[in-house]
Amino acid sequence: MKLKKAYIYLTSFLSLTVMFSGCYYLSYKHALREFNKAAVERSEELSDIGQNNSPSPVLIAENIPDNREESIPVDKQGAEIILPSTNYILEIFDAKTNKVETQELNPPGYLVGLSREEVITYLSDYMNDMPLSEHNKGLLSYELVNFSADQIVLRKNYDETQIAFLFYVVVKNGYVVVFNSDMKSIFSYTHIEAKNLPEKDRIDLSSGIYINSKEELFGLLESYSS
Prior knowledge:
alpha+beta
C-alpha cells in the first residue's frame, strides 16, 4: 500500500515538472518571436529615417581659380627672433663712475628664439625677481636698446648709492630673523627670542631695523645675546 502511494506521488511530481517545463519553453519561444519582430520593425524605421535625412550631394567646383592667399600664422609673418648667430652686446652703466662698459658676447641660450616682445617680457620679469647679487650692486633697470635678427643690445644700469641697506632685522614667529636687502631672502635665522629682549629693542624690531654692514649686524645680534 505504501509502495503504491509512493509511486503515485512520484508520477504526480514528474507530471508537474514536465508541464511547468513545457509552459516555460512555450513562453520563452513566444517572447523570442516578439523580440525579433520588434527588432526588425525598428531596423526598418531607422533605415527610412536614414534615407530621408541623407546629406545633399556635395558639388565639387572644377577649374575655378582661388584668389585667396595661403594663410600664415600672424606670429610667423616676418617676425624677427634672436638667432645663435645674432651679435649680442651687453652695456653696463655705472652711475657712480658715469662710465659704460660694453661686452660683445654670444647670445645666451635663454634668449635664443625670443622675439622682441618676449625679450621685453623677460627683462621685466628679471627686474621683478632679480637675483640678490644684482640687488646688492644697485641694479636700477634692465633695458632693450636695439633689437634685430642681426644684433641685439641690452643695457644694465647700476647705482650703488641707491642701496639704502644690506640687511633688515625683524621679528618673525617670535624670533629675531635677518633678511637680505631685498627683504625677501633670509640671511640668517637666529635663536634669539624676542620676548627675552628689553622693551626698547622689541619696539625697534617691531618696525624693522636696517643695517648697512656685516659688522653692524654682528654687533647688533651680539647685544641681543648678552
